[in-house]
Design goal:
two-stranded antiparallel ribbon; mainly alpha; two-stranded antiparallel sheet; 221 residues; 6 helices
Length: 221
């Protein structure tokens, strides 16, 4: 498997200015991801690991995208001007960043294949991540039986025959309960494809058409 560079170095050889390096720390995330993937692959109960694995997947993807952007901007704009461009791209919403990074770094030659199953898995992961981390509840309506009650002496009087009341209300599945072993493993596999077909070729300046990358269909100048 092709390896990623450990970092980018800009060395001042004449000794009258600063030298720079951009270190690729993403492999630390992928190493922990491989270990966690192995753990939840086991048949014994590991539900308590699903959330930590899921958040590690999401964090690894975003860190990877941000590193690809930084690497590209350093090369294109130089060490003194790259940061403003990098921060602009990094500030894109998570899904848009995933969608747009291949186009950005290839100067609109290539784009991600948004029909690819691994893209769909990563897209689902991003949506679920946002819903889990920013979960919220609001009032919901439900039907309550009409009672033959009346107001008396400042209170509500209910007939004895209606002292027990049957009613139903529906509670939707909490987003965190949607995390299963199968879903987590699919997210992990999709992230492996992202690294293989997008990240590693990008950092080696070898991004071309492959399983997840296609030529950009429309280029408007």
């Amino acid at each position: 498997m092709q390896k990623q560079p450990s970092g980018k170095f800009i060395v001042n050889l004449v000794g009258n200015g600063k030298s720079y390096f951009l270190w690729n720390g993403t492999e630390s995330y992928y190493k922990k991801l491989r270990s966690a993937y192995s753990e939840i692959s086991k048949k014994e109960e590991s539900e308590h690991l699903f959330f930590s694995f899921f958040t590690l997947c999401a964090s690894t993807l975003e860190y990877s995208l941000n590193f690809i952007i930084a690497d590209f901007c350093v090369a294109k704009y130089g060490p003194k001007n790259y940061k403003d461009y990098s921060e602009g791209y990094m500030g894109l919403p998570f899904r848009k960043k995933l969608l747009m990074v291949p186009s950005i770094i290839s100067n609109r030659l290539y784009e991600i294949d948004n029909t690819h199953s691994s893209f769909k898995q990563l897209e689902e992961m991003i949506t679920l991540r946002n819903r889990i981390l920013h979960n919220k509840d609001f009032l919901k309506e439900f039907d309550f039986p009409k009672l033959n009650s009346k107001i008396a002496d400042g209170g509500i009087v209910v007939p004895i025959e209606e002292a027990e009341i049957d009613f139903e209300f529906e509670v939707s599945t909490n987003h965190i309960d949607k995390l299963t072993r199968e879903k987590c493993l699919k997210f992990g596999d999709a992230l492996g494809d992202f690294k293989k077909y997008i990240m590693t070729p990008s950092l080696n300046n070898e991004l071309v058409e492959n399983s997840m990358i296609k030529k950009q269909e429309y280029v408007v100048d």
